[in-house]
Amino acid sequence: MSVHSEPGVMEGHLPEGCLLRDRYRVLGLLAVGGMSAVYKAQDLRFPNVRRICAVKEMVNSADSPETRAIALRNFERETSILASLSHPGIVQIYNCFTEGKRSYVVLEFVQGKDLETVLSETRGFLSEGQVVNWALQICAVLEYLHSHEPRPIVFRDIKPSNLMLDNHGQIRLIDFGIAKVFNTGEKGTMIGTEGYSPPEQYRGVADPRVDIYALGATLHHLLTKRDPRTEPPFTFDTCPIQEANPSVSLELVKVVHRALEYDVDDRYLSAAEMGRALTNLPSAGSSKATVRLETPTDHLNGVTPLWRFASEDEIRSSPAVDNRTLYVGAYDHNLYALDAETGEFLWKYPTGGGIASSPCVYEGIALFGSVDHALYAVDADTGRVRWTCPTQGKVWSSPRAAFGHVFFGSDDRHLYAVNVQGGRVAWKFEADGKVRSSPAVGEEAIYVGCEAGTLYAVDMSGNTRWRFRARRGVTSSPALAREMVYVGGRDRYVYGVDAQSGWLIWRYRTGGPVISSPTVDDKVVFIGSADGHLYALDAETGRLVWRHATGSQVTSSPVVFNDSVYFGSVDGYVHSLDTQTGDLRWRFQTGGQVTSSPTAAHGLIYIGSSDRYVYALPA
Amino acid sequence: MGFLRNWLRGPDPPAAGTAAAAGQRRPPAPSGLDVGWATDVGTIRDHNEDSVLVMSAAQEGDDRQPPFGLFIVADGMGGHRAGEAASSLAARVAAHHITRRCYLPALIRTESDAYQPSLNEILVDAVLAADDAVSQHVRGGGTTLTCALVLGSQAYIAHVGDSRACLLNETRLEQITHDHTLVERLVENGQLTAEEAASHPQKNVLYRAVGQGSPLEVDTHVRRIPHGNHLMLCSDGLWNVVSNADITRLIQEAPTLHAACQNLVAAANTAGGPDNITVILWRSPPG
Questions:
Q1: What SS3 state is found at A526?
Q2: Is A462's pLDDT higher than 70?
Q3: Shortest CA gap B215–chain A (Å)
Q4: In degrees, to the nearest 5, what angle opens at C-alpha A502 toward C-alphas A497 and A504?
Q5: Does B26 reside within a domain?
Q6: Window 52-71 of A, Cβ < 8 Å to B
Q7: Crossing angle (nearest 10°) for helices B257-270 and B244-253
């Protein structure tokens, strides 16, 4: 039990045979600490059976009646929240009550030993398989706690002595720090234990990832038998696991070190993610069957395209759908028009270079750029050219049309505003670098990034309203929602910027350059990163909601349709995830990298691949 | 070439249109911030533990910045005058941090960049700085702290405790912040109904407050306040005794924001005035 040896504070233990609330008969003292004691007791409510429970006694030592009352209410609140939890890895709370200055919690009595005792009784080292099995169980409990609604429960004190191994081999989490509510006001009563707690916990952060770190520290302790409480804090990297215990596999060492990263963003993001990493270890073999962790399975691959259409080269841009027609550009220089329902070829329009720009359709005109330096406007029905707008650089940027004008960027470092019907250039805005980002058009301004790292707000006359400078290029295309501009940077960050002022409201650091463009749906920003993840971030605060790992870079821009988010990955798959949880719904394998972004229309998802095909998939 | 013209304006600005009535050319309507506030000890307590801080700045000219407003309500607690010391210190430290890190740099910069802390980071750090200061300097004191930074029509809010930030449109009052009270937590967990909570004897017991020496988690919110709508910050001395419907009505009916604040305080006192009452009202300017 988590008790501290502070002699003399707790006086007058309950004698054997003493009766609490006319219901719990004390059978003996199990453990004792500074301000608390734990008794073994029998519940007399069930006269025909011998029902044993553990009774934790805490002394409310606050001086003033007010503080005592606050502590008492905190106690009742904490216990009632914990009493609502139900998981095989969590000790059940049966009851709680207060008598004078003493408060009691009646808990399930667990037959077994805590891991600190197990460790001290083990000669030599614990086996890797054993430790991994426990770690998987702990991950499952943490996943349960961290996904608690309305807000996650962070345990904050994972360590061997708080992990009970019961007689069935099940790890049980004990001691939710209920006792600490009676220590309010005492300085230095941080919840947690030095050695096991991460640096940010000292600053008062209660993010679920503090539990990931503490689990890493616990595993380090279990594997090396080196007690982190006796070492200087945060020095795990100076104490290599394999030096202490050469039998530990390098794969497990990597998992433990990832959990112990100093910087919280470098750790596993969730217990589920850490659990998946542990499941994949060779030493996890025997325990896979007993632990339920969500992993992608083959039945998720059973998606069949309604049709697919082959171009002559890679398709990297997004398709656009207008009425019954799908438009898509290919590296074979052509813009294709297909029947969106059947995939039947309607017409194609050849340009002088590859098309990486996604078309847009406006007032019966299909608009798209080409690396031959021009923007093309062709009749959406017939494919006959209406006009072209030459620039001095390649056009990778995808045009956006509004207010009778089309806006797009060029490698000649300009953002163009061109009249859609006549093709006349209304104005050119000069940026610091090549404009490969596609503009977002709002009511009052146009937002676009450039390769020199500047994000601009340009008014409808082509004058700068504000500039925001990222640390590296902004290739990602901004999304405008809730009076904010969201965009990714090659500097690895996702930014949330005030649309009126350009002030930075929040930023979130991913593990790789963010080329993908965000999409905003229901207060959540979805965006991919070259670190291989799709991220879901809270649009107001930038806090991580979830992230999902794919096999390679995610430069494709996600799209949300119904309750799913769709995107491609360089791993060759089109992925469909649950927007709420980030769980994989299905994935579809193409024959090449998927950097194209999906488009949703008519209940279908349209997307291209570097295998030359454009696919129509059932949503 | 433009030049900077800054001014701080009091809570009750002169009525626009006086000049027009005198037959002179009508000056451009002020595009600054329209704000009122009031604080009162109530009828039962003998001293006011609430603190209020209002800053408003506007600037016209080339490279115009959006109007800036900083509104803070803090409701202190603790014996021996520790309550008012805690709320006042928390409000001042938070305001100092926010102006120094956010407003002053913006006055002389031409673009924002990724090398500066984000607004959310600044707001959270401001509340943590207030938490540090109160823990260090006010023994036995604690306070709620609700800070609203307004830029143009966007409100950025950092919040701990059970003072409230609310958005008022033509018809209803929407609570933006969550009360960090035990009872509210029980409601969120489905263990109490809203009706049970309203009459719960311990409805004002906080589980999160500034200066309590425990790890502090700060909530942040971003809200656009549409033109003509109001942002209201208030202590529980108001919302505990005056209904949302009455608050809405009193604000709609008052001729000025200052009068609205006075009327809200009066309504709380008429309802018994059991606690200190503080309210700040801001009206979003034309876009």
A1: strand
A2: yes
A3: 4
A4: 45
A5: no
A6: 64, 66, 70
A7: 140
Nearest to B154 among A150, A186, A500 (CB): A500
Q: Give me chain A's average pLDDT, please.
A: 87
User: Where along chain A do the CATH 3.30.200.20 domains lie?
Assistant: 19-108
What is the average pLDDT across A36-51? 84
Residue A198 sits at the chain B interface (C-beta within 8 Å)? no
The reply to whether residue B115 touches residue A489, judged by beta carbons under 8 angstroms, is: no
Contacts of A83 (CB under 8 A, 6+ apart): A93, A96
Distance CA A2, CA B269 (A): 49
Place of tokens 């696919």: A615
First to last CA, chain A: 51
At the second CATH level, the architecture of A19-108 is 2-Layer Sandwich (3.30)
Sign of the Cα torsion B198, B202, B207, B208 reads positive
Q: Are the C-beta atoms of A376 and A359 separated by less than 8 Å?
A: no
Q: What is the dihedral of CA A133, A139, A140, A141, to 10 degrees?
A: 110
Three-state DSSP string of A207-253: CCHHHHHHHHHHHHHHHHCCCHHHCCCCCHHHCCHHHHCCCCCHHHH
Q: For residue B74, is it within any domain?
A: yes
- Structural domains in chain B (count): 1
The single residue listed with the structure tokens 């029998």 is: A42
Percent helix / strand / coil, chain A, rounded to 5:
20, 35, 45
CB A428 within 8 A of CB A416: yes
Residues of chain A with CATH 1.10.510.10: 112-295
Q: How far apart are CA A62 and CA A58, in angstroms?
A: 12
CATH architecture for the domain at A112-295: Orthogonal Bundle (1.10)
In terms of phi and psi (left: phi > 0; alpha: psi -120 to 50; beta: otherwise), the region of B256 is beta
Q: How far apart are CA B233 and CA B84, in angstroms?
A: 18
Q: Is the pLDDT of residue B20 over 60?
A: no
CATH code: domain of residue B228:
3.60.40.10
What is the edge-to-edge ordering of all strands in the sheet holding B230-234? B34-40, B277-283, B230-234, B164-168, B173-175
* Nearest chain B alpha carbon to A454: B113
Asked if the Cβ–Cβ distance from B213 to A184 is below 8 Å, we say yes
Instruction: Tell me which residue range forms the domain holding B57.
Output: 34-283
Count of pairs with CB atoms under 8 A, one residue in A, one in B: 123
B2 found inside a domain: no
Q: What are phi and psi of B270, to 5 degrees?
A: -65, -35
Could you tell me which of A154, A584, A88 has the C-alpha nearest to residue A290? Answer: A88
Sign of CA dihedral A61, A67, A69, A70: negative
Phi, psi of A71 (to 5 degrees): -60, -40
B-proximal residues of A, 521-550, CB under 8 Å: 540-542
A93 contact residues in B (CB cutoff 8 A): none
pLDDT attached to residue A371 = 93
Tell me which long-range contacts A60-63 makes (C-beta under 8 A, separation of at least 24).
Answer: A60/A98, A60/A101, A60/A102, A60/A103, A60/A182, A61/A9, A61/A35, A61/A101, A61/A182, A62/A182, A62/A184, A62/A185
A150: nearest CB among B156, B188, B224: B188
Instruction: Say whether A396 sits in a helix, a strand or coil.
Output: coil
B152-170 residue pLDDT tens: 888 999 999 999 999 998 8
Burial class (CB in 10 A: 0-12, 13-18, 19+), A493: buried
Q: How many CB atoms lie within 10 A of CB B31?
A: 14
User: What is the second-level CATH architecture of the domain A300-618?
Assistant: 7 Propeller (2.130)
Q: Do B121 and A184 touch (CB under 8 A)?
A: no
Q: State yes or no: pLDDT of B61 exceeds 50.
A: yes
Residue A343 in 3-state DSSP?
coil
In 3D space, the residue among A544, A539, A452, A437 whose CA is nearest the CA of residue A498 turns out to be: A539
On whether residue B141 sits in a domain, the answer given is yes
Average pLDDT of span B6-19: 36
